[in-house]
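Why do we bother with a discrete structure alphabet at all? Because it lets us treat a fold like text: something you can write down, compare, and reason about line by line. To make this less abstract, here is a complete entry for 16S rRNA (Guanine(966)-N(2))-methyltransferase RsmD. Read it the way you would read a sentence in a foreign language you are learning: slowly, and without expecting to understand everything at once.
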Amino acid sequence: MRIISGKFGSRNLKSVPGNKTRPTTDKVKESLFNMIGPYFNGGNFLDLFAGSGAVSIEAVSRGFDSATLVDRQYSAIKTINENIKITKDKNAFNVLKMNAENALTYLSENNRKYDIVFLDPPYKDQKMITQLNEIKNLNLLNNGGIVVCETDDNVILEDNVEGYKMIQQKKYGITIISIYKLQE
């Protein structure tokens, strides 16, 4: 696993030990950034199920000002912090050890807003529609913000979720990337 492009490009990242975390493959990660970017002039990125932190680190490498990485597992948080050290830019990252629901509430209470929210929960624990609604109701997206959902091919997401419009969807093997834009 590596950082594909940008200011941290080609640096190798560590994976979370064990089998509780399923990393986003480099192929899917590269395709994801080609769909939403590929490069950015600032902004804030939220990764609600960060795992190794690879997607958020890629986002900052490609031009986001900051990324908030959330995970509830100790081994994931440890790996995220080790991978952030590789960037030598720890001030660009905010790491939270908590579950997704608590993180959304915490971020809302602290008036945090994001340009992109990335949702890649464990495939067996997917609650995408609930989380999309919570993100909208807690006002966590900036105007024009998007939510990127990574699911397996067993999950069927609706084209239009209340308050959002699906703007793109692509399948990569068993992985599906769905991108929703917040309606103004």
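What the structure line is telling us, in plain words: The two ends are 37 Å apart (CA to CA). The mean pLDDT is 93.
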